[in-house]
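HUMAN: Forgive my ignorance: could you write out one protein's sequence and backbone structure tokens?

ASSISTANT:
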Amino acid sequence: MSNTAKRVFNDGRDWFFEKRFGLFVHWGLYAINGLHEQEQQRYGVAADEYVKLINKFNPLKFNPDHWLDLAQEAGMEYLVLTAKHHDGFCLWDTKLTDFNVMNSPYKKDIVAMLAEACHRRGINLEIYYSVVDWHHPAYPNIGRHHEIMSDPVNHYWDKYMDFLKGQIRELCSNYGAIHGIWWDMNVPQHKDPSVHEMIRKLQPSALINNRGFDNGDYSTPERDFDPEGANPDERAFKRPTEACQSVGVNSWGYRRDEDYFSVKYFQRNIAKTLAMGGNYLLNAGPEANGEFPAESVSIIEELGKWYKKVKDALTAEPAPGLIDNRSVLTTRKGETIYIVCPDDLDCETLSLRPLDREPKEVVLLNTGENVQFTMEPTVYEMAKGKALRLRKIPVNRLNGEVAVIKVI
């Protein structure tokens, strides 16, 4: 990320440029049936039936330190929790609605428990908050995207905004340092600068994404976002950006019958996003008991093994335009150049033309082994003259990983 982009932030918000990989957690009543985080809408569950799930919410195996163990061991440095998703159920001791965790059999403030653990362990905590609310009677649920159809006539937006501001004030006042408000689904596209002004006053270190009540601090592309296509000329983000994706193909919350993305899929996306100067937020949904499913844990752990080996390259400064080969991305730190290869290498040689400085050493970060290099072109490029070319890259041993190479 360029220094110009960094100066957009102040008051402690520059942590976003240092902590680049985070854990997103979608958790709520929807974990009980294990269908989808939007169960009420997608499965046509009546509101008076859905609210009964509060009587079953009792995650006795929830341990915030176990969540943070998983995150830290994978190299993640911040966490975003869905304090209130579209269903309106709140994971904290809010005084503004009875539809909250304190009225479940669990009777413990989950946001407070997680915040205490994050503060103690140096993990930055952000709070996800859905503007859409299927439970609150004042919200205009009139059947737009991500809304149910409850009452197309009697809705009171001003009253709902008072409720929303009150809840954000609670979250920004009662849990110590909060490092971000992660808005979702401002379906009415309502603009209200006072909301973000309040957040800035109460939590100066908190970032605000672009899904709320103004353009926010950063952009939040998700799912099948292709960073390469975003800025094809520069191959670096012009605006602070955080891509996000869930480990599950079908849901963001816990789903009993889920299909999972491959580890390689996330390696490719993380490599592209970070090498272009962005952040990456990987989501998993805990089960109703508070534990992550084994498949999610395995994906996060395997990703962490790779990420920690290549982190220095991915979190270095984006350096687009260093080489002609458009199939790879480049970053740099001082005189050290990193070659990030999101796609599988087709052969064991890689041209880094027009680089013409002979390096001291070339290292494959995935394995720690040295890579051969030459300044001589291939037979087919002799007319182009000399340039740095890597040789004997162990491509057949790298089929399971995105390759990252350090040129010193």
Remarks:
- The longest strand covers residues 78-84.
- The chain has ten helices and 16 strands.
- The radius of gyration is 23 Å.
- Residues 319-407 form a domain with the Immunoglobulin-like fold (CATH 2.60.40.1180).
